[in-house]
Write a structure and sequence with these properties.
It is a single chain. The protein is built from ten helices and no strands. The protein is an all-alpha fold. The longest helix has 23 residues.
């Protein structure tokens, strides 16, 4: 039986294997050989698709940003549920949260696609403020920063802090806190 070539499938396997490796080790500790093993492909394939480990690292980041931006669109009229969906995604994809932490530590800076997404989100919040569905006591940027921080706060804490609130109550705390934050009546 002849094997069929499916470059997109191989690329996806590489991204998945790289996400796991980079989430565990960051770019400095990650090894192309381990990425290839995780992906079930040859190490040479990394260099065929990407500009080495560095290029693959950036490709993983770009894929995550695209997934989050398109997969969890902001609803400025329901910021509590938006925060809840971000919280849920953090639980479903802990490797993504670890990777993002590594990325911020190792790369930091502003990425155009993220900056554009933040601009779009703050514009949506500003529009909701004009319509009176979101408080105008804080700027749209301040509200977005707080919503993102609250939604992701559990993923960035150790067990000592996570143990303060039982897991089944954490999502409720996120949505209730954001509701109070953005409620125009407060």
């Amino acid at each position: 039986m002849a094997r069929t070539r499916d470059p997109e499938s191989k690329r996806r396997q590489l991204l998945d294997g790289a996400l796991t490796e980079f989430a565990e080790h960051g770019i400095g500790g990650a090894r192309v050989e381990r990425i290839a093993t995780r992906a079930g492909v040859s190490a040479g394939l990394v260099y065929s698709f990407y500009d080495g480990k560095e290029g693959l690292y950036e490709a993983v980041y770009d894929a995550i940003v695209e997934q989050v931006v398109s997969g969890i669109p902001i609803d400025a009229d329901d910021l509590p549920e938006y925060a809840g969906q971000l919280y849920d995604a953090g639980l479903r994809y802990p490797d993504v949260m670890r990777f993002i932490t590594w990325y911020q530590l190792e790369r930091g800076g502003v990425r155009p696609v993220v900056a554009e997404s933040m601009t779009d989100k703050t514009a949506a919040i500003e529009d909701a403020q004009r319509r009176g569905t979101v408080t105008a006591q804080r700027t749209p940027g301040e509200l977005l920063a707080l919503v993102l921080t609250i939604a992701n706060m559990w993923q960035n804490q150790g067990e000592d802090v996570r143990d303060l609130v039982p897991e089944p109550e954490r999502r409720r705390l996120v949505t209730d806190t954001v509701r109070q934050l953005v409620d125009p009546a407060h």
